[in-house]
Amino acid sequence: MTKIEVEKEGYRIESIVGLHRNHLGEIISFITSEGRVISYRKALLEAESGLLTGIQMQEDGTGNAYLSPAEEESFDHYPVLF
């Protein structure tokens, strides 16, 4: 992915370039194009605010919000970074 140089209300719009998973394989945090490590919850808030590009927020059958890549089925192709 490329670095996004667009700004929204003084904030730079970023993309997801990597992630961290726990021992169960669940995503616990993301790495942005600016090098920030943000929690899953923070990523949900930033995606909802339009500050993250390339991901979309969806709801499961019980109304819980979750993230998915805009152009892929899952985050499996994203590198796991430490």
Helix content: 10-25%
Report Rg. 12 Å
Overall pLDDT, averaged? 88
Number of domains: 1
The secondary-structure element order is EEEEEHEEE
Number of strands: 8
What's the arrangement of strands in the largest beta sheet? 5-4-3-6
Instruction: Find the structural class using helix and strand composition.
Output: mainly beta
The proportion of residues in beta strands is 35-45%
> Can you count the helices?
1
Task: Please state the overall shape, judged from the principal axes of the Cα atoms.
Answer: globular
Cα end-to-end separation: 18 Å
Indicate the low-confidence ranges by residue numbers.
1-5
For the largest beta-sheet, the strand count, sense and barrel status come to:
4 strands, mixed
Give your account of this protein's structure.
The structure is a single chain. The protein is mainly beta. It has one domain (7-69). It has 1 helix and 8 strands. The chain has one helix at residues 40-48, and strands at 7-8, 11-12, 14-21, 27-32, 37-39, 52-53, 55-59, 65-69. The protein has a 4-stranded mixed sheet, with helices on one face. A hairpin with a 5-residue loop joins β3 and β4 (27-32). It is globular.
